[in-house]
Design a protein that fits this description.
The N and C termini lie close together (about 5 Å). It contains 18 helices and 15 strands. The strands form 3 sheets. Strands 1, 4, 5, 9, 12, 13, 14 and 15 form an 8-stranded mixed sheet that branches. Strands 6-7-3-10-11 form a 5-stranded antiparallel sheet, with no helix packed on it. Strand 6 and strand 7 form a beta hairpin. By secondary structure, the protein is an alpha+beta fold. Helix 11 packs antiparallel against helix 12.
Amino acid sequence: MDAVFKCKSLTSSREFLSPTDGITEKSTPSANMLGGKPDTIVGLFRNQMQNTTAHAVPRIESAKSITRRLFWVLVFFSGLGVFLWQSSIILDQYYDHNTTISIEMKFSKSIRFPAVTFCNLNPVTHRTYGLYLEGDDDDDDERKRRKREVLTTTEPPEEGTTFRYSDWDSKNLDFEEQNEAYKLTQSMQTYIASLNYTDRRRYGHDLKNMLFDCTWDGYPCSPNNFTQFFNYMYGNCYTFNSGVNGTILSTDKSGPLYGLSLELYIQNGEYIPSIVQSSGVRVVVHDQGVMPFPEDDGFMAAPGFETSVGLRMMEISRKPYPYSNCMDSTQSDVRNIFTNFFGTSYTRKACEKSCYNWVIENFCNCTDTRYKYTNNFPVCNATNTTIATCISAFEALYELDQLDPSCPLVCTQPCDEKIFEATVSNVVWPNPMYQDALWAEILTTSSELRREAQMDDNFIRNNLLKIVVYYNELNYEYIEEQAAYTESDVVSNIGGQVGLWLGVSAMTCCEFIEILCDVCIFLGKKILRSSNKDRSSTPIVPIRSRSPVKKSVKTPELELSGIDFYE
């Protein structure tokens, strides 16, 4: 009878909780755990907390007491705090944009041959110095007399400008008065700088007179393979393989036989006494498109010697912003006086010299004699006290690297750069056996050269030199600046920290996506049911009578199975 009573009670309970009676059945946590779907957002989150793979979260939900739950809450937030602290350190390291240097030796079967620039140490020839004497009408008679003395004499200047050994104890240098030869050199440079740039070439040595023999990789070359520019200190300078015509030579062999070989006649008889004290040429090896500065870079080659120049290329690649402030030389807006006039690429030295000249032009209202290429400003006259004081002030700032606030240019290292390391050695040239053959060739070259040679018994030793430029080997050093901390490093390190302290992995992130989808589906269904109710025109009238109709109430057979009604 007890079983029958329980069955009836259960049946009655199902009847009283039937939806047809307008009564909503309440879900219980036990029903959710048995596979039922939670019917509230809180229930969705609690269900997810019970089943998540993140550390400590299931413990918080399943804790039997408040003490245990608070303990696991403390553990979870402690791990979260440590994770956030470590993540901040990782992000700080990333946003510091530190770099590392990678050095690698690379080999190329064919490597680009560099540009080779040489200048005669004598900037102005003896025969054209007279043009300077005649053209400088601002000098008084005494200054012109001293200029002619410098041209003709080889003796030391008068006392008071140069000290002999016997005078050292009685003389005191105060660095206030410059010697006369230096003043005349400055005056000559000022005069030549005042000329149009195209007119300056006739004052220096002509390559057609200087180039005695030229070969590259065994092939003959001529003055047509060189480009010219005028340097304030060395006069005419000539560059082989400049790339201006669009052709850049490459070599696939190393050694002296496969490089550039030059035999030069320096025209020692055209040197001006007391202004140029040495004989030879200045040589600079550089990359194509780079403005050479022989006054700063390069090495000397002396007559009577063969100068052997073994090269090894070094290629440098720097990381651009935000890792460094290097300048991309391919940008069209990177301009300076050398890129504007010669069409060369960006270098830091060219930028700094342009910055200095820009400051002189805008504050002293003249152009420095060293960088006078246009007629926008008059040339600075060093004899003018006001101009000299202005130039001296900004030269001091330039030496201290304090011109940046006054200069609109930002001078940084280029992002890509090629540097050529040179190993220079010298031997006596020519040897006695070759000297006779060379002498015979000189006598048959031209009447002028023959006349000069016959006037000097040591003509070859004093006037001829040889330069050989080649690669020691075809491998080169590649130096690359790399990011010390990349995006992949950040992701992997943060992933390791979140896994260590919170137990969260990529799969755990999918669980968060799942709960968000569940919430969206739940809210969508709720909005849809609410919308359907609003569109319904017939109200639902609850059935209040307890009729014996059983169609809407189905007795679950599973609840009655196994019950003995006659027990």
